Predict the structure.
Amino acid sequence: METIRKDQNKSFSFLALRFTAFILNALFVCLFMVCIYLGGMILLAIISLRFENIHEVSSILLPALVAICPVSAFLFLTYKTSGGRQTPGNKRMGLFVVDKDGAFLHFSKSMVRGLLWIVSALPCGLGLLWALIDHSGRGWHDMIMGTRIAGTQEDVHIPAMAFLSFILGMLSLFIFSIPLLHVIGIMSSLAVMWMCMVILCILIPLAFIIGVIYKIIAGIRKEKSTWGQRFALYGIRIALLTGIMLLFLAVAIPSNSNIFRLNQEIKCEEDIRRIAESVENYEQTQKALPENLTALTEHGYLEKLPTFGLQEEYVYRIEMDHERRYFVLECPKPHTLLKGRCLLPPKGCREVKYIQGRGLIVKTE
């Protein structure tokens, strides 16, 4: 068995190993939970073919399945940090979780440490970032439990440039998931999607260029940092992979109906507000509501009436309420729109209209 280092420090290279192990563990946990969820869904589907009344208890089984995913992931990580075992990320980086004397943890102690890890992560990760301040590089959960992270690598040297390439590559891969979820239809905020696309166009070349520059400099100086070469190669490969996926995503966006319907939704609301503003200006100056929308163009309040979809006109009518005349503007086909809900799944529109005195009203399914 490899000898565990007794000296725990806050060197950049050691913190870089720990941070990388954390990222790898987080990716593994996400994949682990997705596999459990898909497996549970497949099992429920098979059971539903045999038992007809399974749909009656699905409202209980599905939330239970969702709860099982993080619980099972937590128990797996607890098991892998006890008895000298290693989580996937720790194994890749050569790290172990030990007590203050260098002994491996029992399962019960590892479980308590895992629960405290969650507590450390809750206040914006402050308990985890404490490792940057503590002289032994420990977070709150390690300080309470008397544990620490130790490594089997004696001479670890990770150049900052190589690690920066890796971090930028991983960051681009994470950000890539946001526009991907928009194209799939799970999220629905065009502003967020396009902002992420712009950020990716900056991060991906940056990660690739920094990684290549490091490898060129390392080759000229004949540096023999295997960890530096490894992290630079990780950064270059991740940047290339993310860049290729981004190209495919950019090709998919123009043909994606969800994106076009979201654009149409934004345009619809802007048009209705613009027409409503013109009608209200007309009423202020003419002291009466226009009988139809063409009066707006005839009197110069609008250069051209906006249309919805395939040259369909917005619905305009005048109504009475307690002898008060007010106008109503409606979208002619609201069911063709998707109402964006920031980072929540979009919902179909049932009604999009502007009522004078009440403003824009949008009702979703």
Observations:
- Residues 12-50 form the longest helix (39 residues).
